[in-house]
């Protein structure tokens, strides 16, 4: 078999066989197929796309390219969650404890982020002492003992995706549905869970800007999961505004703790309860409606908060962070307020620019070698639909001596639109794909 022939076949719109996809992916991982041929192959997929069978095959070949996690030693139905990423997205910190308190084992591998702010792992590491690297034995033992463990991804999990994604990023082939879906779902399959709840973000702060794009991706991922015998549901959620109020690392942990104490923002709380309910439903704890009720009870009773405390304790963090988060979490006292200049309703927010502004403050990485400043971030005090007067605080910037404050302010100024006409406020949950 020759790479040239496989590229030509896909370029001309042909359907690839399992053997052809294996040849290209495995050959590239082994270094037998050069970058220029793999780049041509990816571009052929970009323009000609893949059908559902090709997507499922590509996903499996990528998942099989490295380590795979066997969760069978952990009793129960294991349901994972995945978010396509957004601004202020800290749902795992709340959803994990809720579902674990309801008897659904949470054996979660999460990532870091090269982007606006840190990933789930970075956020957890803002808790003093919290360990995100556990041995496989510790990982399994924690899930068996307390029902939850959250760790960083292993180095050799889906090496095909790491290598292919780097090439996609350099060749303008990132935003193609089959390639996105295979990238995400290959890591999910390798993670060993029995089912997945996929939080697909939609809007100005998301990768998918329109509901139509998001539905296409959601349907592709759910289809891939089912073709491999896994349960799946996708929840399409609004990212035209930052999720909750806090954007940063310690700030997002603070908001997660407040939410577990039933003091969280309405949009964030609603999303966490819905994702928790879908996870419990896939784990066969009841109907979605029954699971939603159970999730609310877990929050209101304090069971979820206690589970978060256990998670922190068992992974080496200071459990007193639950009671005294503002004292224990690294947070700056240097706050710069961003104020409205005109009167009217906030009608739109460029959420991506809010995320980039937080990056300028030091909350994320510009290169993979950068270190994150856990202390900094942005608190959103006014959102779409709120009426503001000149001088009203729209956002608070938590800054450090290294923050690029002027650049962040400029982005905030570009982010907000204020007019006299009251806008329609979108719900947090836009659609469900099953």
TrEMBL record:
GO terms for molecular function: 1,4-alpha-oligoglucan phosphorylase activity; thymidine phosphorylase activity. SMART domains: PYNP_C (SM00941). Residues 345-419 form the Pyrimidine nucleoside phosphorylase C-terminal domain. PROSITE patterns: THYMID_PHOSPHORYLASE. One of its GO terms (cellular component) is cytosol. It comes from the Bacteria. Keywords: Glycosyltransferase, Transferase. InterPro entries: Glycosyl_Trfase_fam3, Glycosyl_Trfase_fam3_N_dom, Glycosyl_Trfase_fam3_N_dom_sf, Nuc_phospho_transferase, PYNP-like_C_sf, PYNP_C, Pyrmidine_PPas_bac/euk, Pyrmidine_PPase_CS. NCBIfam families: PRK05820.1, PRK06078.1, Y_phosphoryl. Homodimer. Belongs to the thymidine/pyrimidine-nucleoside phosphorylase family. PANTHER family: THYMIDINE PHOSPHORYLASE (PTHR10515:SF0). This is Pyrimidine-nucleoside phosphorylase. It comes from Fervidobacterium nodosum (strain ATCC 35602 / DSM 5306 / Rt17-B1).
């Amino acid at each position: 078999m020759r790479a040239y022939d496989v590229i030509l076949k896909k370029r001309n719109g042909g359907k690839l066989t399992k053997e052809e996809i294996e040849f290209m992916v495995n050959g590239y991982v082994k270094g037998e197929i050069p970058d220029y041929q793999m780049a041509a192959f990816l571009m052929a997929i970009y323009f000609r796309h893949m059908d559902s069978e090709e997507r499922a095959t590509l996903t499996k070949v990528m998942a099989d390219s490295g380590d795979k996690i066997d969760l069978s030693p952990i009793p129960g139905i294991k349901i994972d969650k995945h978010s396509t990423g957004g601004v202020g997205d800290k749902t795992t910190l709340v959803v994990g404890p809720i579902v674990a308190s309801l008897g659904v084992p949470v054996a979660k591998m999460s990532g870091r982020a090269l982007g606006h702010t840190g990933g789930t792992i970075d956020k957890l590491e803002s808790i003093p002492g919290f360990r995100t690297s556990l041995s496989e034995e510790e990982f399994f033992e924690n899930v068996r003992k307390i029902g939850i463990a959250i760790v960083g991804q292993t180095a050799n999990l889906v090496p095909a995706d790491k290598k292919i994604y780097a090439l996609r990023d350099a060749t303008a082939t990132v935003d193609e549905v089959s390639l996105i879906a295979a990238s995400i779902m290959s890591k999910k399959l390798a993670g060993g869970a029995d089912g997945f709840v996929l939080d697909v973000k939609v809007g100005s702060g998301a990768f998918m800007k329109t509901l139509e794009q998001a539905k296409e991706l959601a349907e592709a991922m759910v289809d891939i999961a089912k073709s491999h015998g896994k349960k799946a549901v996708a929840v399409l959620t609004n990212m035209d505004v930052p999720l909750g109020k806090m954007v940063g690392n310690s700030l997002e942990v603070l908001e997660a703790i407040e939410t577990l104490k039933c003091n969280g923002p309405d949009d964030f709380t609603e999303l966490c309860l819905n994702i928790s309910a879908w996870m419990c439903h896939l784990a066969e704890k009841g109907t979605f409606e029954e699971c939603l009720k159970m999730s609310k009870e877990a929050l209101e009773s304090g069971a979820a908060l206690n589970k978060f405390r256990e998670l922190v304790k068992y992974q080496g963090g200071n459990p007193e962070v639950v009671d005294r988060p503002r004292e224990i979490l690294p947070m700056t006292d240097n706050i710069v307020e961003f104020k409205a200049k005109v009167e009217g309703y906030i009608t739109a927010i460029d959420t991506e620019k809010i995320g980039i502004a937080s990056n300028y403050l030091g909350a994320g990485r510009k290169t993979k070698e950068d270190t994150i400043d856990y202390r900094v971030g942005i608190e959103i005090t006014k959102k779409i639909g709120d009426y503001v007067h000149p001088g009203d605080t729209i956002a608070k910037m938590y800054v450090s001596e290294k923050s690029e404050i002027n650049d962040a302010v400029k982005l905030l100024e570009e982010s907000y639109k204020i007019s006299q006409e009251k806008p329609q406020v979108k719900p947090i949950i836009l659609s469900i794909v099953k």
